[in-house]
Amino acid sequence: MNIEPYRQILTKYWGFTSFRPLQEDIIRSVAEGKDTLGLMPTGGGKSITFQVPALVNEGICLVITPLIALMKDQVNRLNTLEIKSLAIHSGMSAEEIDIALENSIYGNYKFLYISPERISTRIFQARLPRLNLNLVAVDEAHCISQWGYDFRPSYLKIASIRDHISEKVPFLALTASATAPVIDDITQKLRFRGKNVLRTSFERKNISYLVRKVDDKGTYLVKTLHKIKGSGIVYVRNRKKSKEIAELLVANGISADFYHAGLPVELRDKKQISWTTGETRVIVATNAFGMGIDKAEVRFVIHWDMPESIEDYFQESGRAGRDSKPAFAVLLYSPADKKRLEDSVKHKFPPVEKIKDTYEALCNFLQVPQGSGKDNVFDFNIYDFISKYRFPVIETYNSLSFLQREGYIEFTEEINNPSRVHFIVGRDDLYKFQVANEAFDGFIKLLLRSYTGMFTEFVAINEEVLSKKSALSRDAVYRFLVKLATLKIISYIPGKKTALVIFTEERLERKALKISPDNYLHVKEKHVTRLNKMIDYADYNTRCRSVILLDYFGEESDRCGICDVCRERNELDLSKYEFDLILDEIKDVLVLQKPDARELVSKISHPEEKVIKVLRWLLDHNKIIMDDKHLLSWREADLFSR
Are 316 and 307 in contact (CB under 8 A)? Predict the structure, then answer.
């Protein structure tokens, strides 16, 4: 195939003259009509791999993503580049969705973003065969796998799209991280026409992974940030702590701010811009901070609290050093962290009867009768819900998450939907209305001057901006909009910020609510396994950090030489080659016999001073055990590891 048209699109819209190596491989694969799974680390430029081929070919690209904020962000960016794009998600009215689908069919749009729970709705299924699709892109593809760390049942419906479209339309699945079982799950459940996995190494050679075992994290953090230069992120587990730690840093002369999902969207945007531009040096944030980060020169990512999985840690720490310059990923770890994570399991997995209690209370709270509610979308304030039923916060949140995992509901975090306007009447009828209703003429002209596209689709507006432009009060602007809607001139949807609950099945009786004990235990066991892998990463002090992370994702590698474990070995003044040769000889001896130190050293065919250095290191790191008679043996658990 000729890659040149794809390069021209890349240069025209994004200003780059060449693709990154894996980007080009994925684009070639998709261009040849192959179903493709692309594994690209955070910051690898995933969106380019479907946006460029979709622009080269005739038709529209269907993009499936569960992240509504990311969806809206990408659609806005594409439209800014004058690439016609739209989105369909659960925060939209039926009228908005209907207009968006009609525009997707007839409006010469290039991208339709959709959240996965919308796929099985009647309105989408009816329009799907009429969409001229050139590509189906599935972002966050790991969500389709029950082996994954973020399984969503709605992703299982994606494969049904194949039943309604040309078999020539390729599927492109994308994810930042996936283990071998997850990779197999993705390709099988998306009905790939052949296993075709393209991946780049997950290795980040410029990142130094460090684990610091400290009890007083605050003192360590302040001292460290005074010593090192550059901008970075400090990740914490809860909102309250993000503010407390940011205030601690500011009190110690460090430019810092906090960020979490509970802040107003405008304030979140302001904080992120301040950090991105360098006005704020350190952002202390929950894992809500990450989507849409476009900052290459991040010198450090520090985790105050341990994440619950290697996947989470790898993705979040991977936001450091995207400019390929040296960077640090630091995990602060104390004995209390291990206990907290182990205790979190009982909160993460409430008893089955508690989950059923939550379901019944949710249905009553939202006034959903038995046998109805399927595909209905409800605004949902979790704090009002918790207050009304006096439920514990963490247990309730995790009960809702489990109901989502079982496929009964979809539960979204708070999204910000601005006000939207769509002109119902055509231009000729609008002109007649303006002539006959002079009081509305000036306001309608203000709307048309301020925004474009309102005759073909719903357009986001800002009442505050209109107020400033017109010298009208905000309340007067609102009254004009409501009156025009009443007169059937426009459709007006006032803005709101809310979380959403979508019923993916009709309300069931309690006894019909099936939460399989086997499935419950299976999910719990997988969670505990991932948790233990994360704890092992923090506990290990004899194995290269980078090797542990890469091994988790099924990738082999040599020692990185720059993590805390490697640096300690480097201080022995031995090359990796020498160290490993001596270590192998020591292990061979100790597997067969239990000598004392002097006898062991005499059996090794390397200079005595070097053997002693390795032996001391192995003893210090508990790889070798010395009994009360001073005889040495290799720890059985480590016989097959290094």
Answer: yes
* Cα–Cα distances in angstroms (integers) from residue 207 to residues 20, 308, 324, in the given order: 19, 21, 9
Q: Are 310 and 322 in contact (CB under 8 A)?
A: no
Output the six-digit token pair for 138.
Answer: 């599935």
User: What's the token pair of residue 414?
Assistant: 């708070």
pLDDT on residue 148: 65
Separation CA 187–CA 191 (nearest Å):
6
Please tell me whether the overall predicted TM-score, pTM, comes out greater than 0.85 for this model: no
43: left (phi over 0), alpha (psi -120 to 50) or beta: left
- CA pair distance 112, 103, nearest whole angstrom: 10
Poorest-confidence range of 64-68, 303-307, 316-320? 64-68
CA angle 516, 521, 524 (to 5 degrees): 125
How far, in Å, CA of 38 to CA of 551, rounded?
19
Q: Which H/E stretch holds residue 377?
A: strand 377-380
Quote the CA–CA distance of 276 and 89 in Å, as a whole number: 28
* Euclidean distance between CA atoms 447 and 483, whole angstroms: 14
Reply yes or no on whether the pLDDT at 639 is more than 50: no
DSSP 180: H
Q: Parallel, antiparallel, or unpaired: how do β-strands 409-417 and 377-380 relate?
A: unpaired
Residue ranges of alpha helices (H) inside 511-607 are: 517-539, 545-552, 564-570, 576-592, 597-603
